[in-house]
Amino acid sequence: MRHRLSGRKLGRPTAQRMLMLRGMVTDLLRHESIRTTEAKAREVRPLAEKIITRGKHGTLHQRRQAAAFLTDDDVLRKVFDELAERYENRPGGYTRLTKLGPRKGDAAPMAVIELMP
């Protein structure tokens, strides 16, 4: 039974999957847009939104928790300085997921996940 289980395994062991998602969230926050498969984009979305919400709170505890998740200090500063300011009046929904269609090589459904302006 799969009661109360959430998330996709994405064909990877747990440690590899979490490191991949951490890297994708960091890249999304750095570049503000990434092109990936639809399944990965759906997994990245809630993680990125939680990091931005931590940035909005702005406390030292929230900064340390975000630093433990993100893989780059420059991105951490961007979240707490620029993005927190940009989204201070928005109660959530900081990302947009746009479907692109199948990838040419293996027909995997592709998507762009980007930060809202």
From TrEMBL:
PROSITE patterns: RIBOSOMAL_L17. One of its GO terms (biological process) is translation. GO terms for cellular component: cytosolic large ribosomal subunit. It holds the Pfam family Ribosomal_L17. It comes from the Eukaryota. One of its GO terms (molecular function) is structural constituent of ribosome. The keyword Ribonucleoprotein applies. Keywords: Ribonucleoprotein, Ribosomal protein. InterPro entries: Ribosomal_bL17, Ribosomal_bL17_CS, Ribosomal_bL17_sf. PANTHER family: LARGE RIBOSOMAL SUBUNIT PROTEIN BL17M (PTHR14413:SF16), RIBOSOMAL PROTEIN L17 (PTHR14413). Belongs to the bacterial ribosomal protein bL17 family. HAMAP family: Ribosomal_bL17. This is Large ribosomal subunit protein bL17c. It comes from Geodia barretti (Barrett's horny sponge). The lineage of its organism: Eukaryota, Metazoa, Porifera, Demospongiae, Heteroscleromorpha.
